Amino acid sequence: MAGLHFPVYALAVLVSSTPALAGSGANVADNFARPALQDFESAAIKLTLATQGLCAVPGAATLAAARSLFVETAGAFGRVSVLRFGPLAAENRFEKLFFWPDPRGIALKQVQAALAQKDETLADVAVLAGKSVALQGLPALEFALFGSGSHELVSAPADFRCRFAAAVAANIAFVAGEAVAGWRVDTPFAASFTDPKPDGEPYRSAAEVDGEIVKALATVLQFIRAAELQPPLGDDSAGANGRLAPLWRSDATFGLVTAQIAGARDLLLAAGYAETLPADQNWLPGQVRFSLDAARRGLEQIASPAEKAFADADDRGRVEFAEVALDGAGHDISEKLSAALGLTMGFNALDGD
Amino acid sequence: MRKQIDRRTFLGLLGLAAVAPAGAGEDEALWLGARLAAGGGFEVAVIDARGRDRLVLPLEARGHSFAIDAPRRRAVAFARAPGRFAVAFGIDGGTPPFAIAAAEGRHFFGHGVFTADGRLMLASESDYEAGQGVTGVYDVAAGFRRIGEFSTGGIGPHEIVLMGDGRTLCIANGGILTHPDYERLKLNLDAMKPSIAYIDVASGELVEQVFLAEALHRLSIRHMALDAAGDIWFGCQWEGEPGERPPLVGRHRRGREPELFPGPAATLRGLDNYVGALAVDASGGVVATSSPRGGIIAFWDAATGRHLGDRELADGCGVAPMGEGLVLASSGRGALAELSAQGEREIVAARPAPSWDNHLRRV
Known about the structure:
Chain A is mostly helical. Chain A has 15 helices and no strands.
């Protein structure tokens, strides 16, 4: 799959190296979305090959390789998770890749049931792709590779668990490939996002593209806070529960979150607003970047495993600091940056009331 | 993290400001709306046809819509979802406000209705651990004691309407799963199944339920009103791909399949995949649907579903009957306007504050 998309990637690099007259949409497509999605797909392909390798040659080394590539793929997904619009959102792709939040533990229940029943159809990626989205993505694969019983993967050849894991990994790569394809230059979505026209869909103007970018940034920061950091934090350290954090079994939680923050920052910088905003407002992207980098650096210092970190006094402080910094960045984006871009965010227009 | 009702609610209620002149007539037209005040506080206001405040009631958090018992001059203001409180109050300021806390494990969605005899108040609520919609049943005379609940037959119940027979509730199950621990994040976009459910008030029994076509499973049915023929008009919000523009306005007659009316392409584009509120005019023959996202209010003929015209109102959302063919509309930018398919009359110009919330209700 990587080979198929390589020419597109090369083209994107060429386009981005031409003098910048492009609008924010073209900048984001060329300088962030396409390369980041390509990296995600590549990581998922490597993960698929490693998981298939584990099934062929079960052992500690092959299991470690697959687990390591899982963590890498989670990070690569984290970077693109800010792109929750267009191709990565269509056809439930985001939910297929990352069924989260999952307050009722649907993914865990379904994966455990699948493993217990050894439903062979779920080891077939073509069939899996039509099953519950909770079975198809990173949380499901994480349980297969890291959850209870995963130690069996070192010894049991042709174990159903391994083949299920390989199918999930292949599905992740497939869905990532669809998102890559959806951002190609010749697609209606990409044409509209990079060159919006008054009669176009889904974007009629550069302002609507800017609105999408601002919304994407605000959305991913809200998602990190509300779906990933706040639930495990609880109200106080006694109420903390690291098992409410995403991907705690693989301890990929903070790798995921820091990659999400980095993705938000890189998308913002790629949009080029520091160059296009008036001189008295062009400091805004820098201020948001400062908050995002501060949050990310704090999370990178976390010493304990994610399962324990939310209850650990020092690490909890780092999470709380990041949470506040992300909240500030979110307000700067949805209020100041949107106003600077001439977007008016309505009192009644943002939420599904 | 779940916000509990607390002393601030009760302290806030002490700030009740009745600004109505004494002896305001019961036949005077009044409207209720929630808003964010100039000073930053959330409040509920009773206003007259000239947009003047007749009663202002502070709230501890953002309000949404109301249950109204007009004969007994009583209303309940609901907190915006995921709301932990509601406040009952006298529309004319004659009775002290009374706070109603959401039951353990439940939160309000912001809408409710009184039964015709005023004995019961029914509220759309979430049983969020089970992920199921319920209608909470409150005994008004017993101090709004919650005496039970029944299933709405779906997830994310939003607006509730009492049908013309006085004994059937119509509930819009928006289909979107949320959980108060996760702010307002939508947890089930892949598996939404919105519906319109009819429930017998006396038994709590689901007597009819209709769904949209599978291809429209992400079309969240949220707001409703009754027309002169006794049919339900509903407005929807599209949670699917923005480039797809499904019809957002529909009508349901009991015993039939729901009908959807796309209207002209420009109107559909103008609604921007989001109807924030819906009202039927005083004659029952004209339906108004607002889109704060698109900044338009579209008018429809209730008898035929024909589109009648659009009016522009930036961040306009609240709509409520005003006269024949007329609605009173409010905006997040402080505007109040009398609108029809044919024209508009500004009552209060847009101004920095207050920001009116999604709904206006006529008493």
